[in-house]
Amino acid sequence: MAQATILLVDDEIPFVETLTKRLSKRGIDILSAFSGQDALLLLAAGNDVDIVILDVKMPGMGGLETLAEIKRQYPAIEVILLTGHSTVDTAVKGMRLGAFDYLTKPCELEALMEKIEDAAKVGSQRR
Ligand SMILES: [Mg+2]
Ligand 1: distance of its center to the CA of 4 in Å? Predict the structure, then answer.
């Protein structure tokens, strides 16, 4: 896989920690944030992120708001949304806002890996 840097954003701290461990074991370069605000700060600090994995349901700045801001400021970043059950509407809204794709939580690691690889391919073709 092309070496892509991932930013994982989710307010569930144990989920972020577990997924970060599992993805870094697979050689993926991964940063994490527990809120939309923190994610934007990490990007503003100049971290070179290719793909953002973004939880939709977060307190404060929600996932869709964060997505819109990421796409406005960094259109080349691909965003994969993590949505809960029965939030197809949210996923559709997210796709309209420029999300690359979405996954329903809880998601299988393999499914997430596939989406990451797809997003990395599309991203590298755009650059
Ligand atoms: Mg959440």
Answer: 24
What residue has token string 């307010």? Answer: 11
14 or 86: which leads in pLDDT? 14
What's the CA gap between 94 and 105, in Å, rounded? 15
Summarised one tens digit per residue, pLDDT across range 65-118 is 999 999 999 999 999 999 976 677 888 999 999 999 999 988 889 999 999 999
How far is 72 from 51, CA to CA, in rounded Å?
A: 15
Regarding pTM above 0.85, the answer is yes
Neighbours of ion ligand 1 (CB under 5 A): 11, 55, 57-58
Q: How far is the CA of 62 from the centre of ligand 1 (A)?
A: 9
Domain ranges of the chain: 6-48
Report the C-alpha gap between 115 and 96 in whole angstroms.
18
Q: Phi/psi of residue 2, each to 5°?
A: -55, 140
- Burial (CB count within 10 angstroms: exposed 0-12, middle 13-18, buried 19+), residue 45: exposed
CA 127 – ligand 1 centroid, Å: 31
